[in-house]
Amino acid sequence: MSKKIYLYGNWKMNMTAAETEEFFKNFNYASDDKVDIAVFPPFTSIWAAHKAAGSGVHIGAQNCYVEPKGAFTGEVAIGMLKECGVSHVILGHSERRHIFGESDELVAKKVKACLDNDLVPVFCYGEKLEEREAGKTFDVMERQIKAALNGLTPDEIAKIIYAYEPVWAIGTGKAATSAQAEEVCAWSKKLINEIAGKDVKPVVLYGGSVKPNNSKELLSMDAIDGALVGGASLKQDTFIEIYNAYAK
Q1: 58 labelled catalytic
Q2: In which domain, by residue range, is 185 found?
Q3: Of 127, 131, 165, 182, which residue is the catalytic one?
Q4: Domains contained in the chain, number
Q5: What is the pLDDT of residues 28-54, one digit of tens each?
């Protein structure tokens, strides 16, 4: 094995605090020089995850707001997340973009706010099925990436974790082929470096119906540094087997 794998689990609107404690009860895995592990529980389970997870597991949030406090009903501030032990935040996920109407501009503000507060943004981008079929895959993603990185320094651009998530593959059971995923991740690294004006060695994950039975092939691709895992991250065995299938 020649590269470090980033294994990130997005729990979405699943896992109560009690279920989170149970998940970590016998979780004997930790980040090291071969794997970087992070889980992203819903807001109400973050504190439980922080207390139950070992120090080798990063705890992340699935969203945040840009203001430190104020009249923003239903939102959660970055300072509140940090107080709960959060180190990473997923931003721009397709479900936030397409169900809740988050714009490229709002996502960009959130990315900057996280960077300004020493949190790692896990920036998601990807195309819908109709956009891929219309040949607009790279146009859509270039717009999303350029908006998020606009005005950032090369050092800031290097701190972001990038996650390519084709919308048509999320929760559908239909993953992108390893060739499709590799093509986009390699293209992404090239574009990110062009925007930064130097080789910032960006970390690019693939997300979209990643499971133990397809993870070895996906994670073996040169430009794919890891996986942002949805449903398969809700159970210990399937989550870790995604990494083990590659590591073996």
Answers
A1: no
A2: 5-247
A3: 165
A4: 1
A5: 999 999 999 999 999 999 999 999 999
